[in-house]
Amino acid sequence: MFSSGLKKVNNAAFPLLAVDGGGTKTLAVITDSKGNVMGIGRSHASNYQVAGIKGANNALFEAINEVLLKVCEKKEMVKFQTGVFALAGIDTSEDRDVVKRMVNDVCHRTGIYFEKLIVENDALSTLIGATSNQPGALVISGTGSIAFAHNGRGEYVRAGGWGHKVGDEGSGYWIGMEAIRAILKMSDGRGPNTLLKDRVLEAINLPTVESLYNWVYGTKSSVDTIGAIAQIVEACTVEGDAVSKNILDSATDELFSLLYTVMDKTLDADEKITIVLQGGILKHNQYIQKQLGDKVKGQFPNSRLILANLEPFEYIVQRGLLNNSNIDI
């Protein structure tokens, strides 16, 4: 997908600007009509719920400005046939209004304009790109969790994605918190013994369960550090720990519930459907990957499961190059 011999070109309309904006980083990519990457700009988080509106705005500006300087002989306005802003944090109508204003401002500041502009949730862009806008579904389990389904005719539904404070069931963070709860219950005598106690304390370099409690409520823990405990839960499951297995079984049930909910609303169970699995948990946790796959095949026998092995921005590029895309803000 990458082109070699980067060379600045004049200001004729470029085929595509694809922006992948998440909670940790932002990528802005200019491609040719075949998806070959002409240049990439990078910046920090552009999820406005994480970075704030000003921080997200600046991240988008920095990433886009960087790639423009790499690729364009920029004089005044730069035209693109298509622009895709695939951004995390577009979850409600209020979010869409905020992000729409932010994108318009960034386009004005960077001097770019589009024949077609698509602004949408990054997970939806991934789904449409991975399925070439054919009927399909996507479930993500990484630090958080979310599911989307679309019928290939511009209609889509979502479930989950409500964040770690109130949702993200089946995610790495959720698994990590379930492990911590199991350790605390074991310490109280309210729950069964589990290998998780010693393994988690050792991994975080903590001496006691009480220090684990302080760690959770202190400044050293985060969504990411708690989410990393999911790896320990899988390892303990392999060793036969019943508590760990129950946690992963519950995570699988939660992810299947997300997926079933969106598919049941938009797709026919007998239809040939592509289901995309994405995120660190679904990519690396072999137990959940297999259990979820078995559940999906049992309910949707004609479905085809694929693991999203490409970089997220590559699916966003694929989405932007589709001629029949009609989902935007």
From TrEMBL:
UniProt cross-references to Pfam families, sorted A to Z: BcrAD_BadFG
CDD domains: ASKHA_NBD_eukNAGK-like (cd24007)
Residue span(s) of domain ATPase BadF/BadG/BcrA/BcrD type: 19-299
InterPro entries: ATPase_BadF, ATPase_NBD, Euk-type_GlcNAc_Kinase
PANTHER family according to UniProt: N-ACETYL-D-GLUCOSAMINE KINASE
Protein name, as recorded: ATPase BadF/BadG/BcrA/BcrD type domain-containing protein
Protein source organism: Metabacillus idriensis
